[in-house]
Amino acid sequence: MILTLTLFTPLSKAQAESSGQETSFSEAELAQMLAPIALYPDSLLTHILIASTYPLEIVQAKRLQSKNKLLPTEQLMEKAEDEEWDPSVTALLAFPTVLDKLSEDLEWTQDLGDAFLQDEERMLASIQTLRHQADKADSLAEMENMSVSRVDNQIIIEPIQKEIVYVPYYDPRVVYGHWAWYNYPPVYWAPYPYYVRPPYGHFYWNSGVHISFNYYFSAFHWNKRHVVVVHHNNARHYRHHGRIVTSHGAQRWHHKPAHRRGVAYRSPAVKHRYKSHRPSTLYSKQVRQADRHAIKHASTSNKLHSKSIHTTRSTSVNNLSHYNKQIAKQREQKFANQMHHKRNMQVSDRSVNKHKVSNHQDRTQTQQRLKQASSKPSHYNRAQTRSSQKPTHKAHNSSQQNKPSHYNQVQTKASHKPTQMRSSGPSNAKTHHQKNANHKSNSQRSNSRSHTKQRD
CA 112 to CA 52: how far, in whole Å? Predict the structure, then answer.
């Protein structure tokens, strides 16, 4: 018995999840999330509800708007057409304050879209409940830029000027009067920048948005509680919501899972309805187009590869280029160190060669000095040179010239003396030389005298 209960318990939970009863939003939760936008004009509110079912495209639209803040609205819309977003997401580019809130509070945006997909009729009924509550609090009478009309007990809010849409800001804790759901207080946002409040009332206003782009292609069918759309092309001019609902080609809005771009659904029933367990053919086609676009800009040789392979390959290429840069830097540093070392070696070699050259020069100079000193004549040699250069008197007689003189005899005798006399010191040689000179002078005097006698 216990085993049977345990087997049937998970089955009952699965059935409850498939029916979507456990994941549905209550009336209090719907009023809580709709409070800050329920009093927006109908045309803008339809775009917010449709765009909330595509949260990823809202984030992408916000990034595009942040990058092109200075662009006019027309040029910004032209750029958005290349992104293939849902037309309602593209239309919100002209309302930066609304797009900021949808992009910043993604949890609230995703809950709003899931509630709209889960039960569209309950969502529109909750909007009318909040409007009637604000009407009872006499807050709608203070909307100076809006036209509030009541048709078949349905409150319709439209701009007074047909092609200028104003986005109001208000405190949901005040405009609705007494809040019936105490445990679910309304979502409160800080005041929008550059918004001004008039001396009376609870609404803040900024300059309106002039509609010159595709905007009037969706409207509420309040009696049937659903949203009606027409083709978004040629929707630049104002269209009354009644004309949109009853126009030729008008149809109930249908969710497009391709624009969901893989974001999970909250309700299992909604998952089963849109078959989110597998990507649609359109989504796969868009993924392939995005891959080809990325590959075309990155490399012309990889046109047939997927985006993930291209990302991995580009990462590896970046890592390889970074590694090559490091290797090149190391090589440059090594080359610089080698050149510095070589330069230091050259400087040291120059100093060594300079020292060798100086030593060689000193050695050469020393050798030259020694050579000069050895070739210089001594004192004895100088005396001999002077004596040999001294002139002799001419002999008047040829016989006297042939006759050996006393000096020659003395020289001959001196040459026959033993070698011991030669080995005597320089002082003895000098003395002997002086004696020979005196003897020679005496002999010359005697010769001159004898010559004089012969003449006489």
Answer: 6
Average pLDDT over residues 401-422: 44
The mean pLDDT of 110-131, rounded to a whole number, is 94
Exposed/middle/buried for residue 345 (C-beta within 10 Å: 0-12, 13-18, 19+):
exposed
Q: Which residue has the tokens 């593209």?
A: 90
Q: What is the pLDDT of residues 89-119, one digit of tens each?
A: 999 999 999 999 999 999 999 999 999 999 9
The SS3 of residue 216 is coil
Do residues 9 and 183 lie in contact, with contact meaning Cβ atoms separated by under 8 Å?
A: no
Tokens of 95: 């309302």
**CA proximity to 86, closest of 216, 263, 260:** 260
Residue 252: in which H helix or E strand, if any? strand 251-252
What is the spatial distance between Cα 59 and Cα 100, in angstroms, rounded to a whole number? 9
Burial of 157 (0-12, 13-18, 19+ CB in 10 A): buried
Cβ–Cβ < 8 Å for 159, 149:
no
Distance, in Å, from the CA atom of 3 to the CA atom of 454, rounded to the nearest integer, reads: 187
User: Which residues does residue 154 pair with via DSSP β-bridges, in sequence order?
Assistant: 151
DSSP 8-state assignment for residue 259: G
The listed range with the strongest mean pLDDT (51-65, 254-268, 370-384, 410-424) is 51-65
Measure the CA–CA gap between 183 and 167, rounded to whole angstroms: 28
Q: How far is CA 396 from CA 46, 281, 428, 452, in A?
A: 163, 154, 35, 12
